[in-house]
Amino acid sequence: GNSVTQMEGPVTLSEEAFLTINCTYTATGYPSLFWYVQYPGEGLQLLLKATKADDKGSNKGFEATYRKETTSFHLEKGSVQVSDSAVYFCALIRGSARQLTFGSGTQLTVLP
Amino acid sequence: NAGVMQNPRHLVRRRGQEARLRCSPMKGHSHVYWYRQLPEEGLKFMVYLQKENIIDESGMPKERFSAEFPKEGPSILRIQQVVRGDSAAYFCASSPREEAQFFGPGTRLTVL
Q1: For residue A46, what is the enclosing H or E element?
Q2: Do A43 and B98 touch (CB under 8 A)?
C-alpha cells in the first residue's frame, strides 16, 4: 500500500536558520505529492504540491522537489521565521484513489 | 469565496450518545472527504463522497460510523454510541474534481 515517512520531530530552530524536513514515500506509479501546514488549533492548509517527477513546488519561501529516483519530497526554506512555527505534513495521492495518505507530521518551533 | 466550513468546532458527548459533525464544502466543490486525527498522530482517511454518493469508505470503521452528502445541505459524519476512543479531531476537505483538497478548521470531539 501507499505510505509516507516523515522526519521525526520536534524540530527547533532559531529565526533565519535553514530548514529541511525530510519526506519519503512508497507508492506504485506516479503519485502526486503535497505539503500541508497546520497552525495551532486550525485545519490544514495546502502549502505546495508537485504532480510529476522533477517538478518543484514552491510557496511563501518554501520549496520541495519531486525526486522519483529517491522517492523523496523534502521540504526546505532558506530562512525561517517565528511565524513558520507549526506542524508540517507530507502527503500523497495515488492514481484514481482520491484519499490523501499523510505522514505523521513534524512539529517545527522557531525561536526569536 | 468562503472556505470549507465545519460545525460545531468543539463537541462534547458522553459515552453512548450520538455525535453529528457537519461540513459545508467550498462553493463549486462537489467532492468531500472526511479525515480523523487522533492525538499525536497524522490524519487518516475515512470516507470520500460526491453528491448523494459514497465513493470510497474504506477508512470508515465498520460499526457506528456513517456519512452522507445529500443533494441539498452539508455533508454529515455521524457517530452513534460514542466511546472514549472516538475522541479526536475530525477534518473535512473538499475539492473541485481531481485537484488538491482544501481543509476545514475541524471539529474536536471529546467523549467523556
Answers
A1: strand A44-50
A2: no
Mean pLDDT of A47-54: 94
* Section A68-79 average pLDDT: 96
- pLDDT at residue B22 is higher than 80: yes
Q: What's the gap in Å between the CA of B70 and the closest CA on chain A?
A: 20
Q: Is B60 touching A (CB cutoff 8 A)?
A: no
Flag if A46 and B35 touch (Cβ within 8 Å): no
Q: Which three-class secondary structure state does DSSP give residue A83?
A: helix
Strands A19-21 and A75-77, by their bridges, are: antiparallel
Q: Measured on CA atoms in the order B59, B5, B32, A27, is the torsion positive or negative?
A: negative
- Share of residues in chain B with pLDDT > 90 (%): 79
CB spacing of A98 vs B48 below 8 angstroms = yes
Give the model's pLDDT for residue A8. Answer: 82
